[in-house]
Amino acid sequence: MHKFRTFLLIMTSFLMSCNWLTDEKNPSLKEAEAPIIKPTLSKAKISEIDSLLTKYLTQHRYNGSALVAYKGYPVYRKISGYKNMTTKEAINFNTAFQLASVSKAFTSMAVLILKERGLLEINDLVQKYIPEFPFNNITIKHLLQHTSGMPNYMYFVDNCWKSEMPLTNEDVLKIININNPTLSFEPGKRHFYSNTGYAMLALLVERISGKPFYQFLNENIFVPLKMKNTFAWNQAAWDSNPNIAIGYSRSGWKYRQKEHVPLDEVLGDKSVYSTVDDLLKWDQALYHHKLISKNLLQEAFTPIVLKSKKAQKYGYGWRLNEVDGKRVIYHNGLWNGFTSSLSRYVEDSLTVILINNTNAHVGTMAKDIYTIMEQELGTEKGRQVVSLNDKNK
């Protein structure tokens, strides 16, 4: 018996020293899930791309952060300008920018995570989870696809809300009920972009999960993907982070600061703050199906089919298009001085990320950058992506 106890103690000590018992005790296990990618292009080619894109953005007086990745590797990564025009505080790579409607992709992911866990079905009626929701024929899918027919809450909220008071998603629902709006069309009949649906989706996630929406995103998306400089608006995060860009409108060489408004605090349709580096982590997580299954993610990237059988180029929180016959999954954003663009040219393994705080036309810039990249990549596209973990082999 004494020998057996000694053997057990030795084996337990050995296993613990090898850090085999838990992932937390062996960080390398987590790192292996998302290996660092090394360049698939030569240094000369990367330098050439850097010069071309820097020249292009300089011509447009770009004020913000930009990143272009090829097969997961950032072949171009630049910051330019100020996060605060008054104090002349420069932007850095940890400066968080309001993503505006690029936030919608995170909202749809939150819904799909709940779907994956069996807590909802996409075709469920919204009233099943929000009983006081005023329409009994609108499904979760209608909200995801902008086919609900609901009017945009931003068009009437100012008439019934004191501007100095905070505004929540619960308040938006109350305002909708007070105004008793009618639907613009029968749900599923047309596609009409409306922020109301995504504000209601964020509220739905709160009702089902029992957690504030910003907390759900943090625990289920941002922390697992190590998006350390990303958050959805909440007062605590806002007060504790000194590195947040201020939004501006630009007219010629003049900039006018945009003030924080109550609508900034409504989540789901906007108000996720992030950086280009964190958005690349998000982009790569989608390629590798880190958060939900491949099949469910493909559903999010599938065009709408209306009741008339007509297809629309929108999925769940993502716009869908084709460039030169190749698929692009993207979304642009515009809100309160900020513009943003996340474009995923999936067949070319190319990602273009632009976040800006001076109302620049980043959607057009992203298209131009893709054209430049396509010309520059040439025959390099076929190279094999290799992890840095293989560099000593």
Short description:
The protein is an alpha+beta fold.
Describe this structure in words.
- The protein has 12 helices and 15 strands.
- With 393 residues, it is an alpha+beta fold.
- The protein has a single domain, classed as Beta-lactamase, CATH 3.40.710.
- Helix 4 runs parallel beside helix 7 and helix 4 packs across helix 8.
- The N terminus and C terminus are likely disordered.
What's the structural blueprint in terms of helices and strands?
Elements lengths: L1 H16 L9 H7 L9 H17 L4 E7 L2 E8 L1 E3 L4 E2 L6 E2 L5 H13 L23 H6 L23 H11 L15 H15 L3 H10 L8 E2 L2 H6 L7 E4 L2 E4 L14 E3 L1 H12 L6 H7 L3 E2 L5 E2 L6 E5 L2 E10 L2 E8 L4 E7 L5 H16 L16
Helix pairs in contact: 3-12, 4-7, 4-8, 6-7
The fourth-level CATH homologous superfamily is: DD-peptidase/beta-lactamase superfamily
Q: Low-confidence runs (pLDDT<50, min 5 residues)?
A: 1-35, 379-393
Shape: globular
Could you describe the largest sheet, including whether it forms a barrel?
Answer: 6 strands, antiparallel
Oligomer: single chain
Structural class label: alpha+beta
**CATH-scheme architecture:** 3-Layer(aba) Sandwich
Q: In the residues, how many domains can be counted?
A: 1
Q: What is the helix/strand order?
A: HHHEEEEEHHHHHEHEEEHHEEEEEEH
Rg of Cα set: 23 Å
Helix content: 25-40%
How much of the polypeptide forms β-strand, as a percent range?
15-25%
Give a count of the beta strands, DSSP E runs of length 2 or more.
15
| Largest sheet, spatial ordering of strands | 2-1-15-14-13-12
- What is the average of the pLDDT values? 87
Work out the helix count: 12
CATH topology: Beta-lactamase
The separation of the N and C termini measures 47 Å
CATH class, named: Alpha Beta
